[in-house]
Each structure stands twice: as structure tokens, then as C-alpha cells.
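2024-03-11 09:14:02 DEBUG pipeline.ingest accepted 1 chain
2024-03-11 09:14:02 DEBUG pipeline.ingest length=475
2024-03-11 09:14:03 DEBUG pipeline.predict start
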Amino acid sequence: MANIVKTAFANMGWMMISQIIASVCAFVWTIVTAWYLGPSDYGIFGAAVSFAALFGIIIDFGLPTYLVRSISTDFDNEHLYLDNSISLKLFLAVFYVIAVYLTSMALGWESKLVMMCLLIAIENVIKSYHAVLFSSFQAHEKMKYQAITNTVLNVLTLLFIILITFTDLSLVGIAFAYIFANFIALIYEIFALRKHIIKPKLSFDFDFYKVLLKAGLPFALNGLFYTIYYSIDLVMITQFSTTYATGLYNSAYKLITVLTLFYTIYSSVVFPVMSKLFKNEKDLLRLSFVKSIKYLSLVTIPISVFTMFYGYDIIGIYGAEYIEAGGVLTVLIWTVCFLFINGASSLILNASHQEYSVTKIYSIAAIFNICLNFVLIPNYSVYGAAVSTVLSEILILFLQFYMVSKINQLPDRHLVFDLLKICFASGVLGIVLHVLNLNMWLAMPVSIVVYFAVILLVRTLDKEDKLIIKQIVGK
């Protein structure tokens, strides 16, 4: 166990450094982009990103997740998996771009929005190659090079977006900033992969394409339904309301996205480990799942409580034009708590070869979310969309825990007690914030001190947690 934990957390150390840089960069460029574009154009940008994401199944097709699981348990056939995935994506990319362009035209959207959809689709093609190549780094548990790639990508994106603000390129310029940053980062990623792990090449094995597509389909459907219920909001707000309303919702949504980047990093480290544990050590698989929920909840619940009190102050960073989105943020922030727990549940189900169960769950949630949006968005606009997303996450929580119980991996009562302690500490934090009514910047350090003081007082960290910490620091 010691070696597994040390490797996982060494990788997480690299990814955490990358994540801190990525979060800072994303936070800054989100604000700069919102300032530069204004609510209406920012709404167009958000709608284009979400719309292009809805077609992500075509270019992604679940290959990255399938490759991580396959390569991490079968290194001898890595070339077969990786080389054919790279060439297969050439064909998928063509279908993807055409589908995004023609569908946006068919909806009768204005030319500016159609053009943005096309440019974002091109960016997503490049990002899809990042995901495939990352699968080798993850399978070999050499996250250092993925972390460096992420850092290069995010720093370049920030620099390019800042440069664009000194031009009159507006929406088109922002899109090209993303495209160029992703392309340059991809060049570095290919170089690092060739030097340290494997030299990928194009291989056109059409029979193996069928294997990849069939195996990747459940992961692809899972991603599709997840994208639908989490991204369809912006598209439906654009269709039923205004691009101004879309811009308000997108400003809150982007802040949530910055937070969820942490989970993306966490899952890229933990999923390969879980896959190996499922094959070799089932007891450690359950421990990995339990600790994932506990540690993620330790972070997300207090953040959500803090945001409830200071949502309008946080949104105020965008400027007075966006202040209405503060209420949306106070609702939408709770998706982070459920998203992280649901994500951990998806990891254990996927690692246990229960990907079809995850697909079914997200398909139900997607339908549920769309139905709610049809009812809530026309009546309550952006607030209805936010409530719809939170309720969808709660539905997923119940469905996934039901499926986890069927594979005998449901956490025991000790996790329930730990979560109650975390909720108690977060509740104390909320009371303190309400009583003191501090300025947001002063409330931040006070919140950290109060929260972790209560966490220690109620003994939230048990012997296993302390053992894991000792193994991480090498003692």
C-alpha cells in the first residue's frame, strides 16, 4: 500500500502545482475575457463552448478513459492502443467539425455565433489529442509531463488572451488565443511522450478501430450525457432567453469550472490506481473510494458555505455589469460538492468495469435536467438553470450509490460520521461568517482558521489518514 500511496501522491504533487497555476491563470483570463467582451459577447462565447461540447462524443468517443484502463493493465500492447487511437481521431475530427457547423447553421443562429462554434470545435479537436496522449502519462503514472503540458497550456492561454485585449479582434481573437495555446502545448506533449515513454505513430488498423469504438462507446455515452446535463443550460438559455442572460450564467459557471479543475487532476491520478486495485487488491479499491469522498468533501463543502455568504462579492470581481450573477453562483456552487462525490463514484464504477451503469445513470440525469430546463428556464431564467443543475447532481448521487452498493463497495458508517463532522465544521464556519459579517478578503483567512480548528477539535482525521500523510511525506 505504501508504494501505491506514495506514487499516487507524488503524481498528485506535480498535478497540484500545475493545478494551482492553471486555476490562477483560468481565474485571471476568465475575468479579463468577461471584462473585454461584456455580458452579451461573453454569452455568445459561453454558448459556443457549451454547444460544441454537446458534440464531444464524436471526437472523444470515450477513448481516453478506455486507453488509461487498458494500457495501465497491458503495457505490452500500448502501441496498438495508442497509435490506432491517434489515427482514428483524424476521421472523427472531420465528422465532428462538420456536425457542429451544420447544426449551428440549422438552428438559425447569427453568423457571429456560428463562427464561434466552428472555431471552438477546432480547439476541441486539438484538446482531444491532448486527452489521448495524456492517457499514456496516466497509465504509466508519470504525471510530471502532463503537469508541465497543462502549465504550458494555461500560461500561454493567459498570455494570448491578454494580448488579444489590446486588439479589436474581440470574439474571434479570444477563440484563436485558445487554439494557438493548445497547439503549442500539444507540440511539447508529443516531444515529452516520445522522449520519456513511447514514440507514437500513425497506425491504420481498421479492424482494431472497431474494438476501440465498441469499447469506448459506454465511456463516450457517459461523457455525452454528463455534458448534456451540465452544459445544455447555456445553450437553452441562449435559445429561450438572451445572450445577455447567457453571459450572466456563464460568468458564474466559469468560476465553478475553475474549481472543478481540481477534481479533473485528482481523477487523472486516482483512476489508473483504482484500475490496478480492482485487478489485484479489492480491499484497497474500497479504501481509495472512501478516502476520495472524504478528502474531496473536506475541501468542497466549506468552499460552498463561504460562497453562499460572499457570492455577490465574488462575482463583483467581473464588474458591475455581472453583479446579477451573484445569486446564480450561490446556487450553482453546490454542484461542486455533489460533482466531486459523484465523480469518485464514477471512478470506482468505471474501474470496476461498470461503465454501462454509469452511462445509464447519466442518461437518466440528462433527460431529467433537460425536462427541468424546459420548465424552469422560461419562467426563472438563469436561476432556473442553476437549480436544475443542482437537482440533477443530487439525482446522480442517489443512483450511483445504489450501483456502488450492488458491487459491494458501498462505504461503511465511518465515512458517514466523517461527513457529519465535515458538515458540522462547515456549519460552525457559516455561523461565524454570519455573526462577524466581515469583508470578503478578511473573511477568507478567518474562515480557514475557524474551519480547520473545528476539523481538528472533532478529530476528523483518523489513524488511516495520519498514516497516509506520513507515507506522502516519506516518514
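2024-03-11 09:14:41 DEBUG pipeline.report The mean pLDDT is 82.
2024-03-11 09:14:41 DEBUG pipeline.predict end
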